[in-house]
Specification:
The complex is a heterodimer of chains A (240) and B (240). Chain A is mainly alpha-helical and 240 residues long. Chain A has a single domain, classed as Orthogonal Bundle (MetI-like fold), CATH 1.10.3720. Chain A contains nine helices and no strands. In chain A, helix 3 crosses helix 5 and helix 4 packs across helix 5. The longest helix of chain A has 34 residues. In chain A, 37% of the residues are buried. Chain B is an all-alpha fold and 240 residues long. Chain B contains twelve helices and no strands. In chain B, helix 2 packs antiparallel against helix 3. The chains are: A mainly alpha (240), B mainly alpha (240).
Amino acid sequence: MTFIEMLGFGQKGWAGLLLGAALLTICVTATALVIGACLGAVVASAKLSGSRSLRLIGHVYTTVFRGVPELLIIYVIYFGGSAAVTAVGSFLGYTGFLGLPSFVAGALAVGMISGAYQAEVYRGAFLAISRGELEAAQAIGMAKGLRFRRIIMPQVVRLAIPGIGNVWQLSLKDSALVSVTGLAELMRTTQIAAGSTRQYFLFFIIGGCLYLVLTSLSDRVFQRAERRANRSMPASMGQA
Amino acid sequence: MDFPFLLQTMKTLLAALPMTLALFLLSVSCGLVLALLIVWMRVGGNAVARNFAKGYIFVFRGSPLLIQMFLIFYGLGQFGFIRYSFLWPALREPFVCAVLALALCTAGYTAEIFRGGLRAVSPREIEAARAIGMSGGLLVRRILAPIAFRHALPAYSTEVVMMVKSTALASLVTVWEVTGVAQRLISQTYRTMEVFLCAALIYLVLNFIILQAFAALERRLSRHRDTAPRPLPNAKPQIA
């Protein structure tokens, strides 16, 4: 079989499968980003809150999820999640093993890691908002919710975009580790293609190139988002 | 809590700790040397070297470490000229492949961190050094390297912690370090949480020690900033 046949879209080609797998990688990462955004917002507010115990919980969360290998967290969510689902199933009267779908387990695991990093990004962005603006909002009698919606939220989002871009790149690379759960994303599909054609070098190079395309494309997207979010701001240092 | 089980798990995992440490120490030190070489090429005057360094950094930062590791472990053996070369006895070993992949990957990240450190050296300091006749090696040794290294230290400590976490991937090329042993224990005992707690504790303690060491190094390297400058011996004391 020639290289062209092997890499084409035909019956024996892997191109279609690999491109589909790249799409699945994006789906896993995007789901993880959303999960991480929710978790990150909660953890960031815990770390910024006045309560000492909440701050401690937030601190422990970010320390654990940034300090423990991603692979270990994926194993725990996958195996532990399956055990939990089986327990719930037996409680509801279903006997036998129930597995957590690998997409759910993978997105959840990468999302929890991304949540720890995003919490730090949001915390930094909040601290970068000028105190004067918050005081001014308070002084004209804005309620807490309104102040959050009009003053805090838009600025945190603007200031957090570069940080979120970094977290996205990290998650994109972490999503390759989800392949250990058997989810046929880009890494796993590359492995299968390499194994079944015995062209390990060729397919790992191609898989790597597809990841490079994904990372450089998303870099572009985040640069544009940053420019757009900053369009009303005077040009400042470090702008994309 | 089943303390005998926890103790037994901890013992089993600690037995794998030397492997994790060996992977970590070897890859960080090789990566550091390689990073210095790449950063030298990246900021040097030679356009070919500069573009090579740019490409290297782009490739190794843009693709997941796992794919790089598989490329080296599975991909290189495909070529006859490598299988029959003097390098094969080394490249056949999973441990060597894992260290090689980890070192090549961290070199890309570290080179960017050191480049950032170099940019933080004020041009005036370089001009001053040139004005008193320093050049080449002396300038690098006395001015550029110390200042750049101190600026790069916080970011480099993050990268080193990332490397501790990355050693977990070596388990996927059959090197039995802590995460690999933990995964085996989980699939043998189905006691996910207990095994996770022990393994997480090991990594967190390891990272804590590393971060403390870097903090101490940073304090040591910025001692001159904390203390007030000593008055010149023959200067008259100023009276306020």
